[in-house]
Amino acid sequence: MVLITVDHNSKIPLYRQIREQIIREITAGNLKPGESLPPSRLMAGMLEVNFHTVNRAYECLRDEGLIKLSRGKKYTISSAVRSPKDMEDFETIERAVIAEALAKGLDATDIMQIVKKQLRTQKHVRS
Amino acid sequence: MILNNVFYILMLAMSALVGIVVSIVPYMTEKPVVFGVRVPASAVMINSGDFAAIIFRLKKYYTIATLIVMVLVVSILFTFASTNTLLATSPLIIITLDFAVYLFVHYRMVGIKRAQGWSVELNRTVSVDFVSDSGRLFPWIFAVPAFIVMVAIFAIGIAIYPSIPQTFPTHFGVNGQPDAFSTKSILGVFLVGFISVPVTLLMVAISFFTYRLPLRIDSSIPGNEKRASVFRERMSVMLLAIPAFINLTFLLISLETWQVLPYSPYNVIVFLVPIIGLLIMVTVVSLMTGQMGANVKLHDTGSAEIRPVGSTVQPKDDDALWRAGVMYFNRADPRILVPKRFGVGYTFNFGHPVSWLLLAVPIVIAASLLIIAS
Fold it and tell me: Which of A7, A8, A54 to mutate to test the interface with B (most CBs of B within 10 A)?
């Protein structure tokens, strides 16, 4: 069971919402390595978005290495490899996020608390 | 005269069953869809509200009105009907009149919604449940009984083929006397068996197809995604169980044509036992599950899984896509089958051209069977 929710009124672009929802379902183990994503036309029709929007989300995920284009033009979930590049990417994102948090006056304890809470509450099965 | 009594009792039971099933439909639908009209979940789910009281009354009136319809139709027909054919229309007349009652309440509901001025239009959240490749495996095991009975028809037929009489009755008139005979042939002996094959395969195909169907979830009600997956599972199991009952009737009919089951006017009752069992099974499962799992009791609705904050708002208003709240017409929806609005199970998306094609298939099959038979 894979639940995808989009809010058409949200300020977050639709393709980003779809991308985040798919990532969450991968993390939670609802989409396992090797399983295929719904065809973009079906996904688009069901979510009432343009199918280019879904394709954009899928291409984003492919660039990030989370999914790959398999035979039969189907996108399938890649297996988690924990590459050095992923570590680098994560550090880049974290650098900016931590900088912002520190600028706003949050201290190391606050940040660690939030990170730990997220790791605890987000259902994750990969790694 | 004896057969007439049998027929009377069967039609009476059939009419009562149909009448009761239709009258309890409002208690099987999704909670925020009342008589084919989508209303905010908060308005119906909070029991103390004025609106919840209005809905409670409307449902009660509908049930009482449809039950009165049933009693009236049955008493009038069974007192005055001069022919059995007229009597046989009883369930159809009940359904037609019940639909008129539904339409009346549906348009009352449309009026109430307009008067309340709910701006469901502003909500634009769409939540969809897809089935992943391995998410859950299709419950193939439940297809086994249907196939066992189907194979049994042929196995028994082949085993006793030499002892089947050279001529046997193939049709019985309303008065119970055989009025058509056939000389022994493969087609004649296994006609009912041959019908059971496409029927079984069709039901298994529908079950398999609907199992993979993405469902739009009203995530304003906690636990609805779990309910949807229970609904999906039970509907598929039910669809796989249906041909088992039908094939049992086919087996009994075959046994009569082969004269294993000695001919008797009461055999009709025997044939209808699996069908009545089927109707009861479908009614019980539907009532216990409810549309999209609306009647499924969950032990913990507050699941630990994190869902985005945005998912707790109302789904968008889709009333315009449902003609009279029962006929779905949406070209933008890629699905051929969609969950019903007033009832339990699936209905066609008439905005999809394939729906019209599929509706034509049974008509073509029926027509070709008539041509073969003549």
Answer: A7
